[in-house]
Amino acid sequence: MISSFSAPFTRGRGAVRLAAGTLVSGLVAAAVVASAGTAAAEGTTPSRSGATATIGGLKTYGAAVIHDDGGDQEVSAGLFEMSVDGGGTLQTYCVDLYNPTQKDAQYHETPWSGTSLGVNEDAGRIRWILQNSYPQVNDLATLAEKAGIDGGLTEQDAAAGTQVAIWRYSDGADVDAVDPQAERLADYLQKAARNVAEPEASLTLDGAAVSGRPGGPLGPVTVRTDANTVTVTPPLDAATSGVRIVGRDGKDVTSAADGTQLFFDVPADAAAGSAELTVQASTTVPVGRAFTSDSRSQTQILAGSSESTVSATATATWAAKGAVPALSAEENCTRNGVDITAANQGDEAFTFDLMGTQHSIPAGTSQTVTIPLQEDQAYDFTIDGPQGIATRFAGVLDCKTQAEETALTTQTVAEPSPATVGGTTPTDTNLAETGSSDATPLIAGTAIGLVVVGGAVLLLLGRKDTPVRE
Q: Are 202 and 240 in contact (CB under 8 A)?
């Protein structure tokens, strides 16, 4: 099913174009932001912060049983492995049990606020489990002793028990590990877990969208990272545009550290336009960081990281007169929508219509507009700036686990699962879903999740005032 909605144009300042939103496999499950100098950058790669990786399937796992009204369902439970773009390997557990894992799905490091963890009061307990179990604790004899387990633990038991404990908090699932040792570990971890804070991003930029007048520094853009140093790459057309990336002293910057402030130095005679800088580093991604997929593959949480490549981008927009907005977006699961922040450094108000409501950002101020969305609702719209500079936002709001969204049912698939529960780890797992043996039905939520590929009913909001906060 395709549903659409639109808002009227506002001439002379800026306008919002709302395109049709279609819920299909492949749409990004986080806000996509792209900009270009003269028009909306259709199809461009979204700006991301942190690590980007491709999932390779379950690597170390055992068996678990989900108990629900439809009966008991046997699933695989354990560690996934991801290959990081630019180099590195990640190990993750699932925090979205009833959603399928798409083969070779690409994942992006994401704040908890953009996932179901953002509205889960037990998210901190999940991070405690990650910090105090396998693979962070790889001395399995010590782990077994802490858990009061006689006879020790295998890696498969440790991975399965850890995943089961996580599912009890992430999905509220009634789930047990099949192996008695793994089940004892799951019980210990669940009871011992304490709330700890969300980890900081591996690499991000505060003030990642800036604006102002040409002829001076635009910023600051502040580096936040746990890496010792990051490389700074200027705009691709820097040689012809004359735009430089400088520090507070006005000198060119090619490397930076945590807390470094960067500025876009734009020539005074530059025509209205925009530019982008990129920072990149090699570091270990903090345990507990969430990872979401462009294809609505199940949300993951980091359990271990090798030295990995991470990156972030920032954009600057400038014009000699009029409104000069800097636009950014972030999914906000607490508010069930997408926050769009507009900072206007021009000398006129920036006015635009959004979902039937007009918003005006006075010169020299910043406001955040929250666009309320239904769960699983696709969105795709473009905000046109006053100098022909457009910014596009697209995605699908994915803030709940399938268990929260719908009652569970059971569906049997004709073909066997790529993995056999309880067997040895295959050389190429590439699971199509978390769990299910080659003989048992898919768990209910997996079946429901696969419906997304064929389309689903969207509940779209009608004309409604959207909240604006200063």
A: no
